Amino acid sequence: MAEVSKQAKEFQQKLEELGSERKVKELPDSTRTAQEAADAIGCEIAQIAKSIVFKLQESGEPLLVIASGVNRIDEQKILQHTGEAPGKADAKFVRAHTGYVIGGVPPMGHAEPIRTLIDEDLLQYDTIWAAAGHPKAVFELTPEELTQLTQGDVIQVC
């Protein structure tokens, strides 16, 4: 079994455990960036829910920000909401806390619970797309499902 299939299947199982009926789709091309994902899926880049993991500078805790593919995260807004400045998380930190590699981090189903912030701009779409455990795997969901499954706070991130 290919590595992509194994990771996609594992995330599919986690979705089911969370009560979601959504299905993971594997694509022939990489979806590592929001632009690559939008091109492969055939949707607007703004409909891509990109998962960015930060390491909070004071506590060292992970923070997941799920942002619209067109938005650049304003770290001042994150600081205002969390009370801590977000710092860069390296690949080892991301993998340790989520269980996934950068470019394939899904919005939920992580190795441990992670505080999550959701970009309010995603709420304007009927459906959005997110990574599903591997850079070539994605799944479709509604913004409402995203909020419910992640228990994230919806804020303005840009």
From TrEMBL:
Limits of the YbaK/aminoacyl-tRNA synthetase-associated domain: 30-148
Signal peptide stretch: none
InterPro entries recorded: YbaK/aa-tRNA-synt-asso_dom_sf, YbaK/aa-tRNA-synth-assoc-dom
Matches recorded under Gene3D superfamilies: YbaK/aminoacyl-tRNA synthetase-associated domain
CDD domains, alphabetized: ProX_deacylase
Name of the protein in question: YbaK/EbsC family protein
The organism of origin for this protein: Sporosarcina aquimarina
Higher taxonomy: Bacteria, Bacillati, Bacillota, Bacilli, Bacillales
